[in-house]
Amino acid sequence: MLAVQGSPDGGGSIPGRRVVITGIGVIAPCGTGADEFWSGLLGPAPTGPRRVEHLDATGLYGPKDIRRVDRFTQFAAVAAAEAVKDAGAIDADPDRVGVVMGTGIGGLETFEAQMHVLIEKGERRVSPFLVPMMMGNRAAADVSMRHGFRGPCEATVTACAAGTHSIANAARLVATGRCDVAVGGSAEAAITPLGVAGFSNMTALSSSGISRPFDVRRDGFVIGEGGGALVLEERERAQARGAHIYAEVLGAANTADAYDVVAPAPEGRGAVACMLQALADAQLRPEDVTHINAHGTSTPLNDEAEATAVVTVFGAPGPALTSIKGITGHSLAASGSLEAVALALTYEHGLIPPTAGLEELDPKVEIDVVRDGPRPWTPGPAMSNSFGFGGHNGALVFGPA
């Protein structure tokens, strides 16, 4: 049972209410909406940066106002609107509906464009909308304002773990009784000249343009973008209104490596602690977990550290494991939300999507990676992992509805 955050044993002074997923929304390079996204996860892997080619948020903002909304906020708004629509008539007190949306970089596209304006045309020509467009909390604010949700409204900025942390924090709002419903998710739009140059010059990006999680030839991540959102609701309330329930949020955890800004702690120590705490929060044993949606970035150090951590917690080969980043690329802060959506859909379809791009498993990796097509799965407890720059670790545990 999802417990009060900080309780190491799955208990807590406030009994945790059961939290379920009743709405999903997603906009990703492989598709917008649950059906397109799922089909994309089962399709062939592209090469090069994974950009969303058909972003159209004019229906939400109109042709004039949309020019004052950064791309990352548009991703969040589209995903959240879809999730709220999917959840149906939640009919909740607006003061008891929360929003937690994460990002790693925020409005980078706006920042970069306005820097050019400053340099080329002078400070008087810088847009007065610069600050509200680039600020990291804009996505959460827009979702709140658009839907009239007046409960807690927060932004999580923990690099590539922000999506997972946001969903966990939103679930806590419901579990502790502060909210009856919460929207959790994240968005990122960092495929700009500045963003790509920064990641490239730190040698984080793949030189081949191919995302190969856990492959012996992996050479870095392929940058992606997008947004994902979940509507999280108290279970009895959702059942009473006849909502479709995708899965239950059983537990969550976050830890810090306290080691290095970009490199994972040796042998995945922080990841091990995070997964163990998430299991304790869910009141599960390692052998109860049947599937892991891995962080699986396709970088040499991170994939090896994660695989080592999985073996430490679950033994070898451990649960069936996949990384969807072979398809989506690494969308930074959006990745945890995209992967949480993928995990919810894995319950819906009874299939685990394959790890695209994986051809030759790294012999140092002693885990059961799903490859060469989807694998049938009897839904059981499952985990989704995210590990971000700064040593931020996050894990979610879902269970069947």
Q: What Rg do the Cα atoms give? A: 20 Å
What number is the mean pLDDT? 94
Q: What distance separates the N and C termini?
A: 13 Å
The secondary-structure class comes to alpha/beta
Helix content: 25-40%
Strand content is: 15-25%
State the total count of DSSP E strands: 13
Helix count, per DSSP?
A: 13
Q: What does the overall shape look like? A: globular
Name the poorly predicted regions.
4-14
Largest sheet: 11 strands, mixed
Please provide the ordered H/E string of secondary-structure elements.
EEHHHEHHHEHEHEHEHEHEHHEEEE
Topology, element by element:
Elements: E1 19-28, E2 31-32, H1 34-41, H2 58-65, H3 71-87, E3 97-102, H4 108-121, H5 130-134, H6 138-147, E4 153-156, H7 162-175, E5 181-188, H8 193-201, E6 226-234, H9 235-240, E7 247-256, H10 269-282, E8 291-293, H11 300-314, E9 320-322, H12 325-328, H13 335-349, E10 351-352, E11 375-376, E12 382-388, E13 392-400
Parallel strand pairs: 3-4, 3-5, 8-9, 8-12
Antiparallel strand pairs: 1-2, 1-6, 1-7, 5-6, 7-13, 10-11, 12-13
Task: Describe this protein's structure.
There is one protein chain. The chain is 35% helix and 19% strand. The longest helix has 17 residues. Helix 11 links the parallel strand 8 and strand 9. About 3% of the residues have low confidence. By secondary structure, it is an alpha/beta fold. Strands 1, 2, 3, 4, 5, 6, 7, 8, 9, 12 and 13 form an eleven-stranded mixed beta sheet that branches. A two-stranded antiparallel sheet has the order 10-11. It contains 13 helices and 13 strands.
